[in-house]
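Batch job 17 of 40 flagged for manual review because the log was empty.
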Amino acid sequence: MLVLRNPEVREILGTHRDLVVEAVGDTYRRHAAGLTTVPHSIFLRFPDMPRDRIIGLPAYVRGGEEPSSIGMKWIASFPGNVARGIDRASAVIVLNDPRTGRPTALIEGSEISAHRTAASAAIGARALSVEAEPEELALIGCGPINRQVLYYLRDAFPSLSRLRLFDLDRERAQRFGEEAERQYGLATTVGDSVAETIAEQRLIALATTAPAPHLDLGPAAEDATVLHVSLRDLHVEEILGAQNVVDDADHVCREQTSVHLAEQAAGSRDFIDAEIGAILRDPASFRRDPARRAIYSPFGLGSLDIAVADRIRGIAQAASLGVAVDGFLPGE
């Protein structure tokens, strides 16, 4: 059993963002081709702690030239942790041998989760943005997820030079902006409200811990591309009035996401225009309407975590990173 701790995972991810984008894109294409098995996520909730949850995401990604990947992510989201001075999310990923089913690796998963989410956002932005080289980005929520979203979008769009930020914790937004200015030289503005921050913006990323819709896109540009990675920010009317792209309609229409609420209101899923894997496999299958906003709502398939984790495991083994635990399983 190989154990990969946070510093080792972070070291690999910090120098292999291209690998993450490749793994996420490839897995989306495989998903669209029916080469994955992704059961519905299991949500463990707590009646006395309604904001907290732990989610189990099992997945199988059928291999081509590479071996198949099998495993599960177990990720906890406890928003109150931020006030305790620790991260909201924590996770572990277990990988299994595709031949025997025996567990082979235990990997710290919160970094992988943030990176694959950000890579998915960047892939969605490249597929949907009406601007080939956008210069400005608005981020709502200045936590770890949007930090990675910024990094991946900056890789996807080197043209980005201006950043607009909003967070309920203004000091956190200011620290975020200072870091972005140091690392990328971006001209950064911290807004006093969401409406001010997204006004006339054409590329927007939402990554909050909101449990229910709270945001309308009225001030944003009419052709804005909205990366709705936190899934519960937008009012139903915003979803129904936009072009909608998801990663998997069955997965995203669950657990009271904005897309799920829109399905309940509309009585169908006809407002969902496409799944991202189908677009990646055949870009001509989707036409971006520049007269409407596009909303990308990726539920976050467990297959992405497993595919990325498997690649990280390979890099770690080649570099002799991690801790090998002997005798973990019977017969070892």
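Reviewer: the log was empty due to a logging misconfiguration, but the result itself is present. DSSP finds twelve helices and 16 strands in the chain. Unflagging and moving on to job 18.
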